Amino acid sequence: MTGPPVAGAGLEVRGLRAEYGAARVLHGVDLTVPEGEIAVLLGPNGAGRTTLLRALSGLVRARGTATLGGTRLLGRAPDEIARLGVAHVTQEGGTFGPLTVEENLRVGARARPWPRRGAGEDLERL
């Protein structure tokens, strides 16, 4: 287990591989997203975008390395990864349907580490 997040480290992915049974989907993905930056994944259906996001959020077993702020992601349970600030929300739903978008964001904010400093500002910005 690594220590607390390192300021400025952002997201670092090296040699990420993932598969569904015998079907290899990701083959050595490398990417860097500096802290404070926004990244977009583009590609056709079947390119591996969803698998990459599932791997980073702990929903698919993956090999290689992935760190957020210097903290290891791979090999952790999805709830642990979510507490670190990484979660995968599918376009098909997966959120609480009867709730508004704002209410769903507030539910997600409760998973932030205590104290939840900045949650109100983040919700306002979103």
Describe the 3D structure.
By secondary structure, the chain is an alpha+beta fold. The chain folds into two domains: 1-88, Rossmann fold (3-Layer(aba) Sandwich); 90-126, no CATH class. The chain is built from four helices and four strands; from the N terminus they run ββαββααα. The chain has a four-stranded antiparallel sheet. It starts with 10 loop residues before the first strand and ends with a helix. Mean pLDDT is 82; it is low at 1-5.
State the main characteristics.
2 domains, 24% helix, disordered N terminus, Rossmann fold, alpha+beta, 4 strands
Structurally, the number of domains stands at 2
Measured as a percent range, the helix fraction is 10-25%
Strand percent estimate: 15-25%
Helix and strand sequence? EEHEEHHH
Overall morphology:
globular
Could you please say which CATH topology of the largest domain applies here? Rossmann fold
Mean pLDDT: 82
- Content-based structural category: alpha+beta
